[in-house]
Amino acid sequence: MKNTKTPTVITVETTVNVPIEKAWKYWTEPKHIMNWNNASPDWHTPKSENDLKVGGKFSSTMAAKDGSMSFDFGGIYTSIVPNEKIEYTLGDDRKVKIHFSQTEKGVKIVESFDAESENPVDMQQGGWQAILDNFKKYSEAN
């Protein structure tokens, strides 16, 4: 029986002090994704693939640096507006929306996603925020 309960939507955001074209490029190109897509220093992304088009698939392998565990994070794009928005559906049918907007302080990135039911909401929010913070650090430093 399919779960008809409306999922909790979690939102994380940051403002990155780079041009919007650079933010988009660093967010979507696998060679950059592998440098920022981790929630803590003891994890990394050794593999990333991205077919950035509606109906295109993406996948990133997230792994503990000590080799103790890894998982693939991926989905299918449902909407893309270059330098503005990315929407996709994860393998477990959860929806994710990312909006990029130019502000006086830089590029504001707002990411909203359906929570999963295995981990507490605050833990999920913390993990996704940590990844977003890594994106900010990486894109501003490179």
Can you give a write-up of this model?
Helix 1 packs across helix 2. The protein has a seven-stranded antiparallel β-sheet with strand order 1-7-6-5-4-3-2. A hairpin with a 2-residue loop joins strand 6 and strand 7. By secondary structure, it is α+β, with helices and mostly antiparallel strands. The longest helix has 21 residues. The protein is built from three helices and seven strands.
Task: State the secondary-structure class.
Answer: alpha+beta
The portion of residues forming beta strands comes to 35-45%
Helical residues, percent: 25-40%
Q: Are there runs of 5+ residues with pLDDT below 50, and where?
A: none
Number of helices: 3
Q: What profile does the largest beta sheet have? A: 7 strands, antiparallel
Question: Measured on Cα atoms, how large is the radius of gyration?
Answer: 15 Å
> Roughly what is the average pLDDT, rounded to an integer?
95
